[in-house]
Amino acid sequence: MLRIFATPEAARRSKADFVLVLVLVAVAVLIYLPKLMAVVLVDHDDVISVVTATCNQGNFLNSPLKGQWADASQWQRYWQLSSHWCFGQIQSAMVDYDIHPPFYFWVLHIWFVLFGVSLVSALVLNLVVVCLTAVIIYVTCRVLAVSSTLSFLATLAWTVSLPSRTAVSVIRQYSLFTMFTAALLLVAVLWLQKKQLRYLVTLCVVLVVGVLTHFQFPIPAAVTVALVAAILWRRRSVREIAQLGLAVVVAAVAFYVVEPGFMESVWRAREQAQSFTFPQLFQRAGAIIPTALQLFNPLDWSHPLPYGLLDWAQPQYVVINLLSIAIGVGTTYLVVRIVVRAIRSGPRGVDGWLTVQRLPICAGVLCLLTAFAMYVSFVSPVQAIGLQYLYFVTPLLFVGVARMAQDGLDAQDSPSVRWQRLVSALPVVLLVCAIVSSALFVVHRSELEPVRDIARADALIVDSDHFGVLPAILWHADPHTKVFAASQDAILAKHPDAGPAVAAHEFYYVSSTAYETPGPSKSRFCDG
Q1: Which of 180, 265, 312, 491 is such that its CA lies 20 to 30 A from the CA of 13?
Q2: In the chain, where are the structural domains located?
Q3: Per-10-residue mean pLDDT for the chain, 528 residues long?
């Protein structure tokens, strides 16, 4: 799999690698598919992705249905496919109304054309991307001469880690963004090792597609390219540095040709920047610790929020939280021990760090520190410390830790008994945590109550026509349900005709604020 093998031993190694990759993919599918199929409540941003990928973003925002009674089906058409292959429409809508680049929405549109529009369909795309990323991570470890056992353990740990669980459950571009970060690392390592032009061309393509996926991709791109250039400088490889610089320039030009209006999205994002305050500064600084403890954790926290907030209201949450904190601290301690042992037993100084083997860990730590610095300095919004937003860093960190673990083992004459026990127990612990997390998600369906209320309503008055809120509310509504959607001020000013509401057997007033937290407030009007 990793090379054109010419010996029986190489053929056996390649076959073993292939089997391990299949096991990793099978684990990902078995762990995540039940969880994804159990999702019923769409989030604000998730439904925006669906409306955008079905080429209806502009149509929704300019809808004539606002402030009047209409069938729910008239609203629901805005998240259904009315046309195919409308990539230009998606791109122009992203420039005019959004802050994100279009590539993920192009991919999601193709996926919808092939497999239909549904929550499960959109989420399964994430699962496919996670499986591909796991393959890339495993291959990168093997290219860096990490043993098959360590490569398998590192990739398995990444696959079931909390950042993976968080990102796979949202209909957004974070999984794809992370896959391109993993691909960037792989092609950078291959180019440094083999110096073949095809890898440099591939690196250029990954740079373009990565920025077209997420405007934060320049963070891993800049860090990786800078480290590659530093490694080449230590090698006195001036020609390769010039080639790398040319590839970056070509990638930048290609990106601008494809997305000439990207600066409009950037300025729109700057308008959403949050003001600096001292209390929030300390709060943001303190959020780094619980976030770091979750990066390698295979067990869900009850609420993996930006500040690591935990819900202690119910006894089962207390047990889950205590177990999660213990496992989070334990996994972080294990990672730190592995890295420290490798540093103590390995080469020191700049030459010891500017190597292909240590490129992943250096890139991962620098990207993580950059994200933390942007967050604490108020460059990034409050949610940017959430695990799905930091997901792009994880391939670098997990590959880097795997390589450091290999360095520590190579410095020993033979593996210790403690290491052998850890290798034996770790896969079981990871899988048990992943199974428990998915099972808890599937069994605990507290959001079903508001969904059922909306689904059986005959008439709805919704105090919002907001882009993300209204589709989330009406996703499961009966197509024949009468809906009056407007802002709260418009409802109070206009006093909508109560005819459909009075005639309805089940009439609900839906507060958008309540819907985003505990559920819709409701009033029932019976016949007669």
Answers
A1: 180
A2: 8-38+118-443, 52-100+447-516
A3: 51 85 95 85 86 93 90 94 91 88 96 94 96 98 95 94 90 96 98 95 97 95 97 94 97 94 78 74 84 85 49 72 85 91 81 91 96 86 79 97 90 72 80 80 61 83 87 90 87 72 72 52 35
